[in-house]
Amino acid sequence: MxxxxxxxxxxxxxxxxxxxxxxxxxxxxxAMRTGWVPLPEQLQVLDVLANPWVLGVxxxxxxxxxxxxxxxxxxxxWDAVHSLIRPVGGALLALAIVDPSDPTWQVIAFLLGGGAAxxxxxxxxxxxxxxxxxxxxxxxxxxxxxxxxxxVGLLALAFANPVIAAVIAAVLLVLSIVLIVVVGRTVRRxxxxxxxxxxx
Length: 200
What we know:
- By secondary structure, the chain is mostly helical.
- It contains 9 helices and no strands.
């Protein structure tokens, strides 16, 4: 596997970590342990992800995140707690995928992985904050379920074809950035319209 494919895989896994870190670790670890997804050689070396303890902790995290992400405002609290955890996790996953004998590419993978995970996380958190302003709970469940399905599907695609997955990840990254900008402008507009209390 060439450096382009490796960076594509690293970018895809990192971006998905910004949405669902625990699911990304769990699915990757299970894929490695069972061999049901043909993983690249570089990723198979990382048998730490297939460790039963790592899989167990990731599994608990998946259940907690699955439940927290479906509840209005609890999802935003969960996102706030993970504002540092997801980017660091995404950066470390990207770092682990790239050849350790080449420090230059490792630094690039670490920076791009952390940036992709942070942008995905920020886009997700911004979208959830906007959705939480709606009084009905259905949109939360729909958005969260779509993220669950997209994460698992894109992970399988990333392992099978890293280049295509990287293109999709790049599109999702751009959409995340656009979402952050749109939500930020909307919040600023709402704050400007809020009437200020009369001075005494």
